[in-house]
Amino acid sequence: MTSSRPSSSDDSSFDLLHPSIQRWVWSKGWTSLRDAQERAIKPILEGQRDLIIAAATAAGKTEAAFLPILTRIANAGEESALAIYTSPLKALINDQWGRLEQLCESLEIPVIPWHGDISQSRKQRFLRHPRGVLLITPESLEAIFVRRGSEAPRLFAEVMYVVVDELHAFIGTERGKQMQSLLHRMEHAATKRIPRIGLSATLGDMNLAAAYLRPGSPSSVDLIVSKAGNQDLRVQVRGYLSPAVIEDPENDSEGEDRLLGAEYAIADHLYNVLRGSNNLVFPNSRKKVEFYTDALRRKCESDSVPVEFWPHHGCLSRSIREETEKALKAGDRPATAVCTTTLELGIDIGAVKTVAQIGPGPSVASIRQRLGRSGRRPGEPAILRSYNIEQSLTDRSSFSDRLRESLVQSIAMIRLLLRGWYEPPNAAGLHLSTLVQQILSVIAERGGAHAGPLYRLFVLEGPFGGLTQPEFGELLRGLGLKDLITQDRTGLLLLGQTGEQLVGSHDFYAAFTSEDEWQIVCQGQTIGTLPISSPIFVGMRLIFAGRRWLATSVEDEALIVCVVADPGGMPPSFGGSRASTHDVVRSEMRSVLATADQVGFLDQTANALLAEARRQYADLNLSSEIVLRSGEAISLFTWRGDPTNDALVLILRGLGIERVENEGIYLIVEKYGIDRLHDALTDIAELTDVDYMRLLTDVFNMRRSKWDWALPDSLLKQSFASLHLSFSGARTAARELVSGTRR
DNA sequence: GACCTGCTGCGGGGTG
């Protein structure tokens, strides 16, 4: 116990906390509350308005929210006051339960974790006396509505606050839309407005965050933004040149090693600079995580030094992931994780020295999030090492290779990062797939519902604005056609037979899809999974969990692959599609190529590659030419993001130009004359959004989200376009390209 | 040629 006591500038906020909570704070030896904690007390105690607390990871956001929340619950005495905390991860719920339990012990406030791994008996206990703090996932909340709909009003009646942790992880996603809908339904069941508190370390646009937390009334959201200390950042971008691919791979016995040459050179460098400290390596795919973990482990073994490199990705079993997390946290010996976005989220792994990024990284926002793990100790800089592979050029090299697209993208993204820019989340998505789920869920909750009240609940008053009444009717009729819902003589909507089946099944509660997976089993222990689409056969050698295996048996029905250790192997394919690049990134890439200014953070090879790319840019005259012809192919340099390029491709196909592909910084059109292309682009420059919608073909490929199959075609196109396409970008790009294709 | 997250109720059998 310390003699000094926490105090505030006006010395009053702390005094407002419940005496037992004040004692708890003293017992922790805190000499003062953190900025965010201090500032959150009054607004939360008033309990009228919504609040976002944005502060760095270690700044005590959880306490900022819960010191005043628990004060109010404790003051309510015997009444059944309740606060609900929601989180995107079970692991986070378990973490928070530990912290809150300790704080609540003396207050005699129960803290109840509720997710798929929690026993029925604990859930039953809560259901009998719903009071205290409930820690729950959105999926479990969904399950409560579906399975215990009639109890919802009783359960939620006394909820005083809802806390949404990791708010940034929800904004703009399917799951985030589901969460908004659940919060809205909770207030409807409780017949009162429930103040919402959002927590996050990495919110960029506060207006977007406020609009997410309280749709339709962002001005009722107060903001507490705790300024982060100005962190020193050190960056190096390295270039690697891969030898030219041999024309006849059949007669190239060293083909594989040649292709991997640059990757092994990167592994060597990582081995030399990362050993002896804690670091994170992000190679952008699970397959490459396997490759680098294996390569680095073998180097340690051949040098007879302890292995310091551990794999971490979503297809590895929980126990293997926990082993890696434990190695990072332990602190007694150095550990580096080779990982995917799994270690970008809020799991506590301590501070790391370096973040290594192999290839450009999926987005600037993501790199920024990853960097938040480095340089967390006072006086230590954050260190970013970027590794980039480019191919040796031949006379058949693509524009993408000639312009060194990958290296230039890394440079552009780091320049944007240094300027403080990153991609805003797409808040304009209609998420009609999730609306289908929510309609079925409310019908199950209430045992039937009428169309009018559903429209009011979801569209007029809820989070699915932007849908007209006729469109909503069309959607309901579509659900009827698929036997998801049916209507009785009074007009009441009920679940159809298919609807009953799907709502009753255990994978109804998540808003996102999941595929079947192979279980990879070694001596009765599951070490991880592979997507059902990846080819599996007996005798197959593979690298998995950073080690080498041989598949000895495959059980087709049970989806089990048994493996034993084996010296051979290649990393398996996990599938996936290309990441979407933003307009601003592509435009920054152009300015990296168009200017001659020195980039300060490049190594020698990267410098030479950039100089070469700039020469190509000048030789191709790309500062004024945006349409290049080579043989039968026409390249359209839009220098725009994928939502724009993809929209152009789909609209062009709708106009009959079928051989067109999005190549990244340009589109490539084959076998169509420049005149035909000119006419099509002229059309695109003049059409309206509604025309574009009509032109969209290839509807099959637009089914990406869980319930898209149940949407009528026109609504599917609308939902897809709102998430993935930019018509306004396509129109602007077409206007520019029209002049480039004029003869 | 990216990534990630989540899950009920019931019946059968064992234990106290």
The helix fraction, in percent, is: 40-55%
Kindly name the structural category: alpha/beta
Number of strands: 24
Termini separation: 83 Å
- Given the structure, what is the number of helices? 26
Strand order across the largest sheet = 3-4-2-5-6-1-7
Cα shape: globular
User: Quick check: average pLDDT?
Assistant: 92
Q: Main β-sheet, in a few words?
A: 7 strands, parallel
User: Any low-confidence stretches, pLDDT <50, length ≥5?
Assistant: none
| CATH domain class name of the largest domain | Alpha Beta
Q: What is the CA-atom radius of gyration, in angstroms?
A: 28 Å
Range of strand content: 15-25%
- CATH level-3 fold name of the largest domain: Rossmann fold
Q: How many structural domains? A: 5
Classified in CATH, the superfamily of the largest domain is P-loop containing nucleotide triphosphate hydrolases
CATH architecture assignment name of the largest domain: 3-Layer(aba) Sandwich
Describe this protein's structure.
This protein has 743 residues and is α/β, with parallel strands linked by helices. It has five domains: 11-225, P-loop containing nucleotide triphosphate hydrolases (Rossmann fold); 233-416, Rossmann fold (3-Layer(aba) Sandwich), CATH 3.40.50; 432-509, Winged helix-like DNA-binding domain superfamily/Winged helix DNA-binding domain (Arc Repressor Mutant, subunit A), CATH 1.10.10; 517-565, no CATH class; 624-741. 42% of the residues lie in helices and 17% in strands. The protein contains 26 helices and 24 strands. The chain has a seven-stranded parallel β-sheet, sandwiched between helices. Strand 23 (660-662) and strand 24 (667-670) form a beta hairpin. Helix 6 runs parallel beside helix 16 (432-446), helix 10 (255-274) crosses helix 11 and helix 15 (405-418) crosses helix 20 (583-594). It is globular and about 80 Å long. It binds one DNA strand of 16 nucleotides through helix 6.
